[in-house]
Amino acid sequence: MGLEIAGEVLEVGASVEGYKVGDRVMGVMGVVGGGAYAELARIDWRMAMPIPAQLDYVHAAAIPEVFVTAHEAMMHLGRLKQGDSVLIHAAAGGVGSAAVQLAYATGATVFATAEASKLERVVQLGADHAIDYRTQDFAAVVAQKTEGRGVDVVIDFVGEPYFARNIASLAHGGRLVQVGILGGGGQVSVDLETILYRHIQIIGTVMKSRAQAEKHAMVRRFREYWLNRFAGGRRLEPVVDSTYPLARAADAHRRMESSANVGKIILTTG
């Protein structure tokens, strides 16, 4: 929370490159614990990106952290490519909804889990197979739809409760990228022979614990590959659930805690 911002540049430091006063920018705050719950904020210019011309500040604020994280996890670390298949959990959330769009744009087959009420929206974003995680066993669905092969990549935010089924859902040479542990990060059991003989990789990633230079590289990779895709025909879509004025941040938190949102909840200062 409080990690993403969008607004107008008011001042630039002496070493800043590529930005000037008056530019519209969006970006990821470089401090642990956020810093974006404010009318004025300072951001490392290497964590910033220009806002595409057709986007307003609200939709721009829904891009930086979630799309950068989705690209890093799925494309850079997970090495997803055209023709691959991917299972994305929490697909109606901020990072999940971004990952679904990036996977679809890449030409991958997308399996996605979400609550039943959110499945239609997930399909609209590009999921080929939308799975109700409350009533369906996602591992069984993957096995059936892939005729036992499994998927090339799993993007997970849940953790321990899904771990065994995530491993079972992977194809030979598959990659599990663990982006979060919302359901618990306790002990898990894994059969090392399964990892060894099926050539499976388990990769953990979180932005806030990375060195600043690595964060710069994450933003740069996303910007170079995807930023221009927020314009034109089959463009990427910042998914905004709702907006609240900064003074009602507590209400925004309650909305998030209710798990009713699809996509990002944005605080406005205007």
TrEMBL record:
Residues of the Enoyl reductase (ER) domain: 2-267
UniProt cross-references to Pfam families, sorted A to Z: ADH_N, ADH_zinc_N
Keyword entries, A-Z: NADP, Oxidoreductase
Alphabetical list of Gene3D superfamilies matching this protein: Medium-chain alcohol dehydrogenases, catalytic domain (3.90.180.10), NAD(P)-binding Rossmann-like Domain (3.40.50.720)
SUPFAM superfamilies named among the record's database cross-references: GroES-like, NAD(P)-binding Rossmann-fold domains
GO molecular function, one term: oxidoreductase activity, acting on NAD(P)H
Keyword NADP belongs to the record: yes
Matches recorded under PANTHER family: QUINONE OXIDOREDUCTASE PIG3 (PTHR48106:SF18), QUINONE OXIDOREDUCTASE PIG3-RELATED (PTHR48106)
Full protein name: NADPH:quinone reductase
